[in-house]
Amino acid sequence: MGLLLLLTYTFVSSYVLLGTEVDAQRSFTIRRISLSIEPSTNVTRGTDVTVRCKAIISSSGSEPLSREYTVYKGSKTVYTKNSSTSEDLLYPLPEARATNSGKYMCKIKMGDKEMKSEVEKLTVTGLSKPVLHLDKGVVTEGEKIVATCTAPGETGSMFFYFYDGYKLIHEKFDNSNQLQYNFSISSVGIHSIHCLYIVFIMPDTAKSERSNTVTVSVKELAITPVMEIHPPSNIFEGDQLNISCTVRNSHSSFERINLYLSQGTHLLSSGNTEVNRRLTAEANRPGDFECRLETGNIEKVVNQTVSVTELFSAPIVTMSPAEIFQKDNMTLTCKSERYAFERLTGSELTYSLEPPQTPLTQTSPGVFSGKALQYEFNYTCVAEAKGIRKHSETLTVRPKVSVSTPEISLIGSAVQGESFKILCQSHTGSLPINYTLLKNGKVEDTFIVRRPFEQAYFTIMVTSPDEIGSYTCEAKNRHREGQYSKRLHGTVIVPLNNLNVVVNPNNSRVYEGQELLLLCGVKGTPPITFKWHHNGNKLKTNTSNVSFMSYHIESLTKDDSGTYQCEASNQANRVLRSEMITIEVYMAVWKQALIWGIALLVVIVLVVVCVLYFKSKRGKREAAAELSVRSITL
């Protein structure tokens, strides 16, 4: 056990170590220190235990050096001893108790050097049996008893517990091995008292066995409470009850007496020797009465239950009809289903409505009629007889709102031949509301709106613009009759069709300088957007409410030759395109005549030049021939 520590120490100067002079030239080393528990680390209570601390010291001299031993239990120092011998340190634990259990460790110190052993745990099992003593064995109710619980031979911090049979009657912490407890017993009979204790061995605890059992005989005191109720039976609501709470067998030897008369949890009255109370019987209040007597530590109680017959039952209010609309006629009926015929006649039981400012008037006993309000209202029926009033549960009348005249409208755009939506809506009316779409008075479709913010949409399709005016809708909730909308109004967009292009002049040849007019016409709902294209390039765009558009060129040029196309569209998002129209612009006539004139003139000039040329050639040949003849003649 322990750590091997080689520490060489040379004293340079002499000093006093724990009261003993040590040679300044001596050196030593603490080689090891160990702790052991004898006879074992696990022992039973009452065993003599020894904690042994053994140190091995090497020194340069023959005489043992002075040293200091310290024994720890947990973090607490339990033993310290100075020694100048090499003998082991012994820390005795005679007749070990559970409180001696714990973790032990030993430390040795020499000069300014020290070494600790490893930790060893001691476990002492077993506690002494507690001893219980009572100063009395026979007592009367409430008489004081002194109980003493002792843990023989035990030490340390303890919790003591006292029991009456299996019932814990007291617990308390104490630092000694004995505890006194003063108590009294209020219930008559034989009681078995015992105790036990718990010892704290941090961080654990140890519990003792049960002590000896001591019996106590508790005798009843003669004093008792008495309660009387008149009348004792056949009690109805409204009857007067006389209740008394008194003491029997009371005498001056008793301490101050207190009487308490209660109904349920409500204290009716209190006094010393007698309590009386007069009250009206009520069926809806608890009929449990209690007379309680208290004197010193004694409590005695007598209970009695009174059964009260209901004179009449709480009224029930009903409405007819079960569902009403604003300003409709309505009837409230107020009636008690049961009443005591032997005590009450039907004429004695009256009915009324609360609040008094109700708009309904009583037409017969318990029947109230009138017009429904335009807002919700709370009604309560009151039945009354012989000073007793009973209220019904509150009836909340929520008049429904008749449906208002619906409005029918288009949602988005309506295109002929395509499906589109319409909305039928009433701005007021209690749900659910049935909406019916009608065409020329015949049912087309139905939609039921059951939740707020839900709307009735219908999908239709028309084949002509006039057909849209044949639609109406009806709105109806559970009121007597429905409401009809006006006819549906709206613009029906007719998709474009029959696109035609007219060219003026319409002959196949056009010449420079001439006027050209292109006219594009179409059928459909305006506004219509027209676009002209020349050789695939956009020339002109125009939107108008007329069904045609022209493109005019005042004086044609060669650049105006090519293909022309008209494109038309409206809100139906259907685009129509014409066929390609080819326009070839020819040269002007006067330009052609000029060119032909110039060409003819050039031809004439060329002919004249050629004639003259040939004539000149011929003249030369003739002159040459004449000279030749002349020369020959000569």
Itemize the secondary structure elements and their pairings.
Elements: E1 9-10, E2 15-17, E3 20-22, E4 27-38, E5 42-44, E6 49-59, E7 67-73, E8 76-83, E9 89-93, E10 102-110, E11 113-116, E12 120-125, E13 131-134, E14 138-140, E15 144-150, E16 158-164, E17 167-174, E18 178-184, E19 189-201, E20 204-207, E21 214-219, E22 224-230, E23 235-236, E24 240-248, E25 257-263, E26 266-271, E27 274-280, E28 288-295, E29 298-305, E30 308-309, E31 316-320, E32 329-335, E33 350-354, E34 361-364, E35 367-371, E36 377-385, E37 388-391, E38 395-397, E39 407-411, E40 414-415, E41 420-425, E42 433-439, E43 442-449, E44 456-460, E45 471-476, E46 483-484, E47 492-493, E48 497-504, E49 510-511, E50 516-523, E51 528-534, E52 537-544, E53 548-553, E54 562-569, E55 576-577, E56 581-583, E57 585-586, H1 589-633
Parallel strand pairs: 5-12, 14-21, 23-30, 40-47, 49-57
Antiparallel strand pairs: 1-4, 2-3, 4-6, 6-9, 7-8, 7-10, 10-11, 10-12, 13-15, 15-18, 16-17, 16-19, 19-20, 19-21, 22-24, 24-27, 25-26, 25-28, 28-29, 31-32, 32-35, 33-36, 34-35, 36-37, 36-38, 39-41, 41-44, 42-43, 42-45, 45-46, 48-50, 50-53, 51-52, 51-54, 54-55, 54-56
GO cellular component, one term: external side of plasma membrane
Keywords: Disulfide bond, Glycoprotein, Immunoglobulin domain, Membrane, Signal, Transmembrane, Transmembrane helix
Transmembrane segments: 593-614
